[in-house]
Specification:
This protein is α+β, with helices and mostly antiparallel strands and 405 residues long. The strands form eight sheets. The protein has a three-stranded antiparallel beta sheet with strand order 5-6-7, with no helix packed on it. The N and C termini lie far apart (158 Å).
């Protein structure tokens, strides 16, 4: 006899014994436990017979239905209904349980296991679908990223393909150039400038004087001509000039064909002899300095010189009407003095070594007489005369310079 037949007979005998005990009112729970242990042992001995055992147990369960109903005891076999295929893991999960009143619970156990199997399948399906959804989301993210990259690429292409700025019909780069009246010009140090009034030199915008650029820090423009500043001061070249030795400004005037200083010189040389009347610095500011003759011949600024007695002083006096009337016309007006100042010469009473300031003015000429004398011209208060005289070269008088021809 085969092992299979032996086990079947054993199972059948156990079932009959259980039925018999139940009919006689015996303890069915103990028998059930024995049967459960026997059944489990059989499954452990030969797993391959599991499916046959399950089928047999199920048949026993069905046949015991009427007995269980009448005796109010329940025999439960270890049964699992496998709807699709028998696998070792799925077929070994049923157990023998006690039934309280009817055999309907056997069917309920089967249903429960079917539900469990369905739940497992449903969970597996849900997991698969969730995984599939995740893959779709991931795929969607990749597509979105790809779309974003394409969008960025499109924007870059759009930016690079932007039409250039036009100046009239000429394209230009606004970052380095600017457009004026349909003409393109390079910026100066990154800045636009006024073409009519400014220009560019080494990346620096400079003003124009006429068509010439100049440095406004050291120069200024007057009448389309460029002049150096007098120190940090601008001035009117039409009426003033700068003594660059000490950055003093002097007024000048043209009388006839000559150009004269319109005020007395006030330059303090490093050599020679010069002083302020009464050693009062304020007198120098008003009337200029007093010089001896040797210093006077060297003290005029560049482009100017000490005038001669006959030729240059004589020309001025003759232009003003002669020596008898020229004094009134050359002297400054009140309150500085008592002249009419017809030509803007503005002669001032600066005094001398022997004459009080405010009453008389005397000026050196470049002409000398003998070894120790030189010639001067003098104007006095209350007189219209211009008087020439010889005096010691060591005396102190004022200086008026005339411009070089």
């Amino acid at each position: 006899m085969s092992i299979f037949s032996t086990k079947a007979i054993t199972l059948f005998g156990a079932g009959v014994l259980a039925l018999f005990l139940a009919a006689c009112g015996g303890d069915s729970s103990t028998g059930g436990e024995d049967i459960e242990l026997s059944s489990s042992s059989m499954e452990a001995d030969d797993p391959s017979s599991s499916s046959v055992l399950n089928s047999s147990s199920s048949s026993l369960g069905d046949s015991s239905d009427p007995l269980s109903s009448s005796s109010k005891n329940t025999f439960s076999s270890s049964s699992i209904t496998d709807n699709s295929s028998s696998s070792n893991a799925e077929s070994s999960s049923s157990e023998t349980t006690e039934s309280s009143s009817s055999g309907d619970e056997i069917s309920s156990s089967s249903i429960t296991e079917e539900s469990s199997s369905s739940a497992i399948e449903s969970s597996s399906s849900t997991t698969t679908e969730s995984s599939s959804s995740a893959e779709k989301v991931s795929s969607s993210s990749v597509i979105s990223s790809s779309s974003s990259a394409k969008s960025s690429s499109s924007m870059e292409q759009s930016s690079s393909s932007k039409e250039p700025e036009l100046c009239g019909i000429v394209p230009y780069d606004p970052a380095t150039q600017f457009c004026v009246e349909n003409s393109v010009y390079d910026k100066c140090g990154g800045q636009e400038y006024n073409l009519a009034a400014e220009g560019c030199s080494d990346g620096i915008i400079l003003p124009k004087c006429g068509n010439t650029l100049y440095d406004p820090a050291a120069q200024f423009c007057a009448g389309n001509s460029i002049y150096d500043k007098c120190g940090d001061k601008t001035y009117s070249p039409a009426t003033q000039f700068c003594d660059t030795r000490d950055d003093k400004l002097y007024r000048w005037v043209k009388i006839g064909s000559q150009t004269w200083m319109a005020e007395n010189l006030n330059y303090a040389p490093k050599t020679g002899n010069s002083w302020c009347y009464g050693d009062d610095a304020s007198r120098c500011d008003t009337y200029g300095r007093l010089y001896d003759w040797a210093t006077a011949t060297e003290v005029c600024p560049a482009g100017w010189h000490l005038p001669s007695y006959d030729e240059e002083w004589g020309m001025l006096i003759n232009f003003a009407g002669g020596s008898s009337t020229a004094g009134a016309k050359l002297k400054a007006k009140s309150p500085s003095w008592d002249g009419t100042d017809d030509y803007g010469f503005n002669a001032l009473p600066g005094g001398s070594f022997e004459t009080a300031v405010g009453r008389e003015g005397a000026w050196w000429t470049a002409s000398s007489y003998g070894g120790i004398y030189a010639v001067c011209y003098r104007m006095s208060s209350g007189s219209g005369n211009v008087e020439g005289f010889q005096t010691d070269k060591s005396f102190g008088f004022s200086v008026r310079c005339v411009k070089d021809n």
